[in-house]
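Continuing the batch. This is chain 6 of the set; chains 1 through 5 are on the previous pages. Same settings as before, nothing changed between runs. Recording input and output for traceability.
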Amino acid sequence: MVSTLVGTGHGPMHVASTLLITQEPSFSDSVAGIVNQVGRCELEVHTDVDSAIQHLADNRIGLLIAHFADAGDESAVAALIQEVAAVGGEAATIVVCDRYDPEIALRMFRLGVADYVKSTDLSRLRFLADVLTVRLRFQGAETAEPVGTQLKQVSEDGTFLFGDGQMAETMQKVSLVAAQDSNILLTGETGTGKTRLARLIHELSGRRNQPFLVVNCATLSAGLIESELFGHSRGAFTGADQERNGKFKEAGQGTLLLDDIDTLSASAQAKLLRAVDERVYEPVGSNASHPVEARVIAATNRILPDEVAAGRFRADLFYRLNVMQFRLPPLRERRAEIRLLAEHFATEISIRLGRAVPKFSDQTFACLEGYEWSGNIRELRNAVECGVTLATAAEVRVGDLPEPIQRFADEAASASSATESPATEPADQSSAHEIEHFEQDSSFGTSGRSTSLSVLAKARVQAEVRRILEALDKHNNNRSRAARELGISRVALYKKLHKFGLIEST
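Output for chain 6:
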């Protein structure tokens, strides 16, 4: 037995231990490099299962990686899983083999492994090591390092970004679900990244070498959507002069994203229900049945239970699509990440434009952090591109940003001037409580920020309190319905009510 401790050196932060079982030094070196990239991780390497299990029994391990040269050595994997369970190990287990076999992968998942990865797929292994240990690595981190101080970028084309907050926990679940074939429902406002998350799920699945297709249901008329999904036979309707494959056929064994699923007509919903339930469909104008081989991911920016209650969406279809659901929070719930996202987009856009990367003034950051972002991350990226393009100095200023953000800055300044007058009192006691709480919020800095930051921050807080009160009034103080109206959970609303002094603490 050889046991080696490699890679850590990240100071007093919480460290997650990863246990690797392998007899190949070259693979051990590769995993050590991955652990160092993830950060806040240490790697313990063992060459035999018995010593590894003993170490697992004596220590808290966040992740177990078992490397088997023979992909068919399922009995050894089964024995390992049983021994891990016997010692009470809670670590997620990744099995790595030199050859990938989809049928063996399915059996591995049934044994309870978190994922089954080919030894050469180091990018996937790095992502899994990151998300499967994120909770352990950041336990207690709020006392030493603010949440949102790191920005992660995953997927082969680097298109999905998230910080260390609630999205990190979501991504941990995504990594586990992606390897399965369950239907998935993605919810969230426009611009939160539902399409990009769907593509990431596809990339992390065993279907990643198959097509990933998107159908935007909202852009197709009721007469065309069924043909788009299921195809049609020649002569099925006027203009159908030849047979056409639909997206289910074209997707094959890949992934099909049905965006804006809530806009489907009743007829299309009925046909889709059969496709996802019985895994068969018929092209328009044909009686021939075809098997559904693709994985279905649905996305919506509406609250589907409300659509079901209103009779606009079939309940049976909702339950079949909603096997696993991931909600992408709006940017206003991820304000700690706005600065990081803005800097990332500025770098990306500047490189594309072939110019030096500008910085952001404090006032510009105050605007970006206080603005409501109804278009979410998409709108933020567009605003940053506008600012970078128009900036004539070494920094992006408020005047370089789109007009709606400039108006927000002006209105915030005007509101601050009015409230700072000695003869003017806050609109109500709750606003005063709310501003007091907000000024103690470390996510927006302390006394080191400029006056403009304080002005914009107060305006943003007052606007948020106003929205909460309006939602509660609209729904007769029903917190569940108000939370749904605001696009947050009931628990999140309850915390905001306490934070802003709108209810008494008990």
